[in-house]
Amino acid sequence: MDMALNDKPFEIAGKVYASRLLVGTGKYRDFDETRAAIDASGAQIVTVAIRRTNIGQDADAPSLLDYLPPSQFTLLPNTAGCYTAEDAVRTLRLARELLDGHSLVKLEVLGDPHTLYPNMPETVAAAKTLVAEGFHVMVYCSDDPILARQLEDVGCVAVMPLASLIGSGMGILNPWNLSLIIEKARVPVIVDAGVGTASDAAIAMELGCDGVLMNTAIAAAKNPVLMASAMNKAVQAGREAFLAGRMPRKLYSATPSSPTAGMIAAKGA
Prior knowledge:
single chain; alpha/beta; 3-stranded parallel beta sheet; 15% strand
């Protein structure tokens, strides 16, 4: 029996997606490599830094939309580089204009230019404004279970706690807090930031996360396209392991893997 058949749909703002891997578009060599990696990842939701990527702001420069058309992907404009609620809201209003009324967005308000750790008071303030204006907000946040619940109560359609600092590749540093968020959440929980390799993505999914978002882990790999393929498989494997239910952890087991009852005794024993 295929356990995946019993899985609940991965649904964001009323739309169901087959892939639970979300990917970014920054740090690639060029748009051709971006497209090749995203194809290998199988991702359907692709996040775009409005302040750093041309999606029509500059009519004389190549546009990402020529390589990742909205007819093929769900574009997720984000507020990378914003340090205040006001800047984040202004950036997403611009994105909505550029994308013909697109309402699904990723909110991140940073608190420090070195660590890129989120400024949570500004994040909550921006989320309230955006939700009131009809945006469907997926929100990058710390791994604080109380703040994650506050963002859900504000009306965010997904909470996206960090695994570790953006671009660090350190993996999941606090699985306990993530588990607390997952346990109480009524909206999808998507690990965002800190994934470094395929095993990190698998662990996030084994914990019960609904999805994983990454950029640097793929774009900064020696072979981005191959790493994108690996991440695709890791997310699927981690989800299946979560659905299957792992065996209990034990210090040791007095019960052997193979049964001993009815063993054929050796001759002369």
